[in-house]
Every structure is written in C-alpha cells, then in structure tokens.
Design goal:
alpha+beta; five-stranded antiparallel beta sheet; 5 strands
C-alpha cells in the first residue's frame, strides 16, 4: 500500500545517472510503475521500502503476495468418455 502525501500525490526517489532525486508523482502513475516492474523490499532509503527495478523507491508497505487459485491445483487426465476415434477407411 502506497503512502500518499497531503496533496494526494506520492513521493518517490529515482535514480538519475549516478545520483538520486526526490520528487512527487500522481498515485496512478506510481501504481502503473509498480504494476509493470520488478518489486522488492529495500532498505536503501529510510522511509522508502518499496523498490521497483532498483530505479524507483516508494514509501508505503509491500502487499503480501497472494498465491493464485490455480497455483496449487493439480488436474487429472481427461476421463475416457466413451468416444471412439473414427477409422478413415
């Protein structure tokens, strides 16, 4: 969950060459970056624990990963339903 500032934007720290800059962006843009990037927890910048592609750092909390409903399911082979393959003679 991202932590918005008083204007409804979100602070971020971004790599800019060999330095880092701190600025704000709309929360929707931040969610888009997070949604399409590789997200991990970081302790590089105090108060900015969400790292995306090691380029963007956001304040907030990482959501716990939810396993997909299909991830742990196993499927049986299809049952023989009595259909026979046609012989082309």
């Amino acid at each position: 969950m991202l932590k918005k500032n008083e204007n409804g934007d979100i602070w971020y720290i971004k790599k800019a060459g060999s330095a880092y800059v701190k600025a704000t962006m709309p929360i929707g843009k931040a969610e888009g970056i997070i949604g399409t990037g590789k997200v991990k927890e970081s302790d590089k910048f105090d108060g900015f624990p969400i790292a995306v592609n090691d380029e963007y750092f956001f304040p907030g909390e990482l959501a716990e990963e939810k396993s997909s409903d299909n991830e742990d399911k196993t499927y049986d082979e299809p049952k023989d339903n009595g259909w026979k393959k046609h012989d082309k003679r």
